[in-house]
Specification:
- The protein is mostly beta strands.
- It has strands at residues 5-11, 19-23, 28-38, 45-51, 56-62, 71-80, 86-94, 102-106, 112-121, 128-135, 140-147, 155-165, 173-179, 187-191, 197-206, 212-220, 223-230, 238-246.
- The radius of gyration is 17 Å and the shape is globular.
């Protein structure tokens, strides 16, 4: 069975706390997605990149302590399924409030994980910012975040997206990862082998010290790109990008 997977994007206007939502056309179902915070200057950092149901992907960011407006771009990867041959589900899990919250969402059996996302609900405080949104097993997605410089506990939600055939068709999956060099503004990129279709991806910023925070986790051609940055205080780190492929 041929899988018709397409990419849809939307970009916000410039704002201190930019956000944008991309909605896919009729008969498409979202199986993965990502975001890039198009920051400059002091920096604007990711707080959300997640599916709002199977038809929309939402992305958000914020500046932190220092004014730094930016635009943000949301990416939705969706399968064209006019005959409802695929059952696409989203499972989510919410953490307890913490300064450095983390949580894992798990798919039911018989579903193939194609992507996932994260949303840190920092409320009206100074902010809690994403550090990781990545596949931590074949069936689960992990999300992490942290406050930065100012204590501000928050809850984080992880989202795992899964597919299952309604017709008995087989679905194979592959996950590739690559880790970049330690840097103040670390980046990493990983490509899928030939013959695979990119369905989603993730990023893990392996920070320590003051902290290094996510600014991007998004599809770039048939690759997945991840980026982070330190903020105010020097804090170099390495970042890992994950690409999920299906066929």
């Amino acid at each position: 069975m041929t899988l018709n997977v397409q990419l849809f994007t939307a970009t916000s206007g410039s704002a201190p706390h930019p956000s944008v939502q991309v909605t896919v056309p009729q008969h498409f179902k979202i199986i993965g997605g990502g975001a890039i915070d198009n920051w400059s200057g002091q920096g604007n950092l990711l707080t959300a990149s997640y599916p709002k149901g199977i038809n929309s992907w939402f992305a958000a960011g914020k500046d932190h302590e220092l004014p730094s407006p930016a635009t943000i771009t949301a990416f939705a990867i969706a399968i064209y399924d006019p005959n409802n041959e695929w059952d696409v589900i989203i499972k989510s899990e919410v953490s307890n409030p913490a300064q450095h919250p983390s949580v894992i969402a798990v798919l039911p059996t018989h579903y193939t994980m194609t992507g996932g996302g994260a949303f840190v609900d920092y409320g009206a405080g100074p902010g809690n910012l994403l550090t990781a949104s990545f596949p931590n097993s074949d069936t689960s997605w992990e999300a992490r975040s942290k406050d930065h410089d100012i204590a501000d506990p928050a809850q984080i939600t992880a989202y795992a997206i899964g597919m299952r055939s309604n017709t008995g068709a087989s679905l194979q999956r592959i996950v590739k990862s690559a880790t970049g060099a330690v840097a103040a503004h670390p980046t990493a990129q990983v490509a899928l082998p030939a013959g695979w279709i990119l369905s989603g991806g993730g990023a893990f910023d392996n920070w320590e010290g003051a902290g290094n925070l996510l600014t991007a986790s998004y599809p770039l051609g048939m690759s997945w790109h991840a980026a982070g940055k330190d903020h105010k205080d020097p804090s170099p780190a390495a970042i890992t990008a994950y690409a999920i492929g299906i066929r």
